[in-house]
Specification:
heterodimer, A: 380 residues, mainly alpha, two-stranded antiparallel ribbon, 17 helices, B: 260 residues, alpha/beta, Rossmann fold, 6-stranded mixed sheet, 4-stranded antiparallel sheet, 9 helices, 10 strands, 26% strand, globular
Chain lengths: 380, 260
C-alpha cells in the first residue's frame, strides 16, 4: 500500500472538513441553512458521479436525470413497502438504477459523440414520459408519488401515529441538520470513491480512452466494458442522489427526470471544471447557490437596489434587471455559462489554476528582483 | 511446404474489394520470424489495405491470415483489433497516435495495463503492486528510447519525431512478437528519419519481427531483410534487398525506371 498521508488522503480529509463545516462557514453568505446545504450535498454527489462518465471518458450523457428519477421512485417504494430506514432505501435505489444504467448504457454506448448524447436524451425522455403517464400505477403520474398511512412497511413493527412516518436512520430522524449531515457523509464517501477511481489503473484507462480511443483499440483494450462500467457507476451516483432527495423529502415527481435536469448537471460539471476532482462539486454548489439567491429577488428588492437612481432610469433598470432574476434567473445562468465556456473552458478549476500561476509568477518575480538586489548590494 | 515455425505470419490468397475496386488481389506473403519485412509499392498499391487486414480494421473478403504466436497458430481474419494486439501484434500509425492529454510516463504505462487487464478489470483498489512494476518497466523503456528526461511532459507537446519514439516505446512495453509499422518516418526531417532508423535497428536486437510499410527507399534499404513489392493489389516481386534492387519489373512499376 502507499504510505498513509499521501496527497489524495489530504485532499479527501480536507474535502470532508470543508463539507462538514459548511453550516458554519456558509452562514455569512446566507446559505447556512439545512434546505440549501442538503441541495449542495445532493447535487454535488450527482455532479461528481456525472463527472466519472463525462469528465473521464468524454462521453456526454444528456439523460442522467432519468437515473435521479429512478433512484427517487425506488427509494420511495422501499419506504412504502419495506421500511422507513434510509440506508435500505438508498441501497435499493442504487441497485435498481444500476440495472437501468446497464441496459441504457449497453445500447447508448454503441454510438459515440453526438449520437451517444442523443440516445441518452431519448432514453431519459422516454423514462420521463413513462413516469408521467403510462406508469401511473407505479409513479402516481402528475401528482407524484408520496407516502401514505396505509402503506404496508413490512419491516417496521411500530405502528404509525397520526401523521405520515418520516425516513430515519435506525431511529434517528433525518430532517434539518441531521438530513444534511447524512447527505454530507454519503457525499464524502462518494468523493473518496471517485478519487480512488480516478487514480486507479481503471481511471487511467478511461482517461486514455478519452484521449485517443483509436490508439486504445490497437493497444489491446476492449473499450466497451470500461465505458459501460463508467456509465453504470455514474448512473448509480445519480440514483443515489435521487434517493437522497427522497430521504430528505419523501416525495417523488416525474419532473425531476425532465431534460432540463439532465442539462443542469452538464452545466454544473462544466462550470466547475469537467475532468477535475473538485470541479463538479464547486459547480453544483455555485449553481444551487445562485439559483437560491437570484430566484429570490423580486421587484421590491430590485427597486431598493436601484433606488439611488433618478425615477425614470430606475424604472428602466428594474425592468431590465428583472429579466435576469426571479423566475428568469436561468437567463443569468445562461450568461454565466457562456462566459465560462468562452473565457474559461476548464471551468472554475482552470480559473483557480490561472490565479495560482499568476500569483506565483508575481511572487517569483518579486523574490527574483529582491535576490538580484541583494547580489548587487553584495557586489558593492 | 515450409516449416511453419519459421514464419510468424502467413498470408494466403487474400482478396479485398471496395465496390468495384480490387484493392488486394490474391496476396500471398510469408513473414519469417525475426525478419524485417518491408512492403513497398506506389501510391494506391494496397499497402495500407494490407496492413489494415492484419490489424483487424478490415476483414479480407477471401483468403487467410494466420499468425504463429507464442501459444500456437491463430487465424486473424474477423478478430477485433484489441484481440489481435493481445496476441502479441503491436502497430504504429502513419501519423503517430499517442495519448496527447497524458504525460509520457502514463503513455508508456497504459499499454502495459491494457496488455495485462485487456479483457477487463475494474481494479480500483487492487493492483498497487503490479502498478509499481509497470511503472518501473515503463520508465526503463522510456530511458532505452531516450525520452526519460521528458517523462513528466504532456505527450501532445512533443515533436513528431519524439511522438514516434514514444509510440514505439508504447509498443515495446507490451513485448510484442510482431511489430507493424505504417510509414514510420513519414513527414519527418532527415535527422529524425535517421534517428528512427537507428532506433528501429536497436529494437531489432530484441528479436521482434517487423513489417514495415514504407515509401522512403533509404529507410527500406537500411532496415529490411526482405522486401515484397505491391502494385495494383498484386505482389509483383519478393526477395532480398539486392534482388529487389536489380529486378526490372520493380524498377518499372515502382521506381519508374530510375536508379535506386
Amino acid at each position: 500500500m502507499a504510505q498513509f498521508p499521501n496527497k489524495d488522503h489530504i485532499l479527501v480529509l480536507g474535502f470532508a472538513a470543508v463539507i462538514l463545516l459548511m453550516p458554519l462557514w456558509l452562514q455569512p453568505f446566507g446559505a447556512g441553512y439545512p434546505d440549501l446545504l442538503q441541495k449542495f450535498a445532493i447535487f454535488g454527489l450527482f455532479a461528481i458521479g456525472f463527472n466519472i462518465l463525462f469528465g473521464m471518458t468524454g462521453y456526454l450523457s444528456f439523460g442522467h436525470a432519468a437515473f435521479i428519477g429512478i433512484g427517487s421512485y425506488t427509494a420511495l417504494w422501499s419506504f412504502k413497502l419495506f421500511s422507513m430506514n434510509a440506508l435500505l432505501a438508498i441501497v435499493f435505489a442504487m441497485a435498481v438504477t444500476g440495472v437501468f444504467a446497464l441496459l441504457i448504457g449497453f445500447i447508448a454506448l454503441r454510438r459515440s459523440g453526438i449520437y451517444f448524447s442523443i440516445l441518452t436524451l431519448a432514453f431519459a425522455q422516454m423514462c420521463y414520459n413513462l413516469a408521467y403517464s403510462v406508469l401511473t400505477p407505479i409513479t402516481n403520474g402528475e401528482t407524484g408519488l408520496q407516502l401514505e398511512q396505509a402503506d404496508p412497511r413490512i419491516f417496521d413493527s411500530a405502528p404509525v401515529g397520526d401523521g405520515l412516518p418520516l425516513p430515519d436512520l435506525f431511529g434517528m430522524g433525518l430532517t434539518g441538520y441531521n438530513g444534511f449531515y447524512f447527505c454530507a457523509v454519503v457525499l464524502i464517501i462518494g468523493f473518496y470513491i471517485s478519487v480512488r477511481l480516478v487514480r486507479s489503473p481503471f481511471g487511467m484507462m478511461l482517461k486514455a480512452v478519452k484521449s485517443n480511443q483509436n490508439r486504445m483499440k490497437y493497444t489491446g483494450l476492449n473499450t466497451r466494458p470500461y465505458l459501460l462500467s463508467a456509465f453504470v457507476i455514474s448512473g448509480i451516483y445519480a440514483g443515489l442522489a435521487g434517493a437522497l432527495m427522497v430521504v430528505i423529502d419523501p416525495l417523488a415527481g416525474a419532473e425531476r427526470m425532465q431534460w432540463t435536469a439532465s442539462g443542469e448537471v452538464v452545466l454544473m460539471t462544466i462550470l466547475g471544471g469537467a475532468g477535475t476532482l473538485l470541479g463538479p462539486m464547486i459547480g453544483a454548489a455555485v449553481i444551487k447557490y445562485c439559483e437560491n439567491i437570484f430566484s429570490a429577488f423580486n421587484q421590491g428588492v430590485l427597486n431598493d437596489i436601484f433606488g439611488f437612481l433618478p425615477d425614470g432610469i430606475q424604472g428602466a433598470w428594474v425592468s431590465f434587471a428583472g429579466l435576469f432574476v426571479g423566475s428568469g434567473w436561468h437567463l443569468t445562468l445562461g450568461v454565466l455559462f457562456m462566459l465560462i465556456v468562452i473565457f474559461l473552458p476548464g471551468g472554475a478549476m482552470e480559473g483557480f489554476q490561472r490565479l495560482a500561476d499568476w500569483i506565483s509568477a508575481r511572487v517569483g518575480k518579486a523574490t527574483a528582483s529582491k535576490s538580484k538586489l541583494n547580489e548587487q548590494e553584495g557586489a558593492e | 511446404m515450409l516449416n511453419q515455425s519459421e514464419d510468424v505470419l502467413v498470408v494466403e490468397g487474400v482478396n479485398k474489394n471496395f465496390g468495384g475496386l480490387k484493392a488486394l488481389d490474391d496476396v500471398n506473403i510469408r513473414i519469417r520470424d525475426g525478419s524485417v519485412h518491408a512492403i513497398i509499392g506506389p501510391n494506391g498499391a494496397g499497402k495500407s489495405t494490407f496492413l489494415n487486414c492484419l490489424v483487424g480494421r478490415l476483414i479480407p473478403d477471401t483468403g487467410s491470415v494466420v499468425y504463429y504466436g507464442r501459444d500456437g497458430a491463430h487465424s486473424l481474419s474477423g478478430l477485433p483489433p484489441h484481440r489481435i494486439n493481445q496476441m502479441g501484434i503491436s502497430r504504429v500509425f502513419q501519423t503517430p497516435e499517442v495519448f496527447n492529454d497524458l504525460n509520457l510516463l502514463e503513455n508508456a504505462m497504459i499499454p502495459a495495463f491494457a496488455h495485462n487487464d485487456g479483457a477487463f478489470s475494474l481494479n480500483a483498489w487492487g493492483g498497487v503492486v503490479s502498478r509499481g512494476e509497470v511503472r518501473e518497466e515503463a520508465e526503463h523503456i522510456l530511458e532505452d528510447i531516450g525520452l526519460a528526461d521528458k517523462k513528466e511532459m504532456v505527450a501532445g507537446s512533443l515533436s513528431r519525431g519524439d511522438k514516434r519514439r514514444l509510440e514505439l516505446a508504447m509498443c515495446l512495453v507490451q513485448k510484442p512478437k510482431l511489430l507493424l509499422l505504417d510509414e514510420p518516418t513519414a513527414g519527418m526531417a532527415r535527422a529524425d528519419t535517421n534517428n528512427t532508423i537507428d532506433l528501429l535497428k536497436k529494437i531489432g536486437e530484441r528479436g521482434i519481427s517487423k513489417v514495415i510499410i514504407e515509401h522512403d527507399m533509404h529507410v527500406v534499404f537500411s532496415l529490411a531483410t526482405r522486401i515484397s513489392v505491391l502494385a495494383r493489389g498484386h505482389i509483383i516481386a519478393e526477395g532480398t534487398p539486392e534482388e529487389i534492387k536489380g529486378d526490372p519489373r520493380v524498377q518499372e512499376a515502382y521506381l519508374g525506371g530510375a536508379e535506386v
